Amino acid sequence: MSVDQDNNSKPEYCSSFNQFNVPYLKTERLVLRAPLMDDWPAYLNLMVSPRSHFMGGPVSERSAWGIFCHDVAQWSLMGHGALMIMDRSSKQCVGQVGINAGFFFPEHELGWFVYDGFEGNGYAYEAAAALKRWAFKELRLPTLVSYVDPENVKSRRLAKRLNGTLDIDAPREDPNDHVFRYKEDT
After folding, report:
1. How far apart are the C-alpha atoms of 111 and 148, rounded to whole Å?
2. Average pLDDT across the chain, whole number
3. Dihedral sign, CA of 60, 85, 107, 144?
4. CA–CA dist 180, 148 (Å, integer)
5. Entry pTM
């Protein structure tokens, strides 16, 4: 699977993010692009619902807004952040993938979610694999991790599919989380 970083042909709605070097990544089936205000309603619906259980939710609307803004702000503050996952053929936003860091993340975290109705299509894997490759190449990180709730069987399975190995000694905010460590694929 190849990933193209196509900053020269970003759609007009992505132009405001150019100052922060937000990548516009393409895979065979997906576009990974900067979050837009049009993404907020679906994001809010996820974060206030029981589906957000493994991400610390459900949360209030105010908290969901803070998390959404955090996802966007990391691009200007840290040079990485969240990208929305868009299906190239349907043009639907199907979820989000991101590199998180900061006060609540002991290490750079690769995270993902897909919206209700889009699971089981390989979107999270394709998006996470593309962003992982981008992070190792562009950010030159030595490793990435994913913090996964032990009960989140689907994310544990995906972390393993992404070549993550369980790191029982890794620092973590939640002592119950499983930490999967990724190294650059050779």
Report:
1. 9
2. 92
3. positive
4. 8
5. 0.90
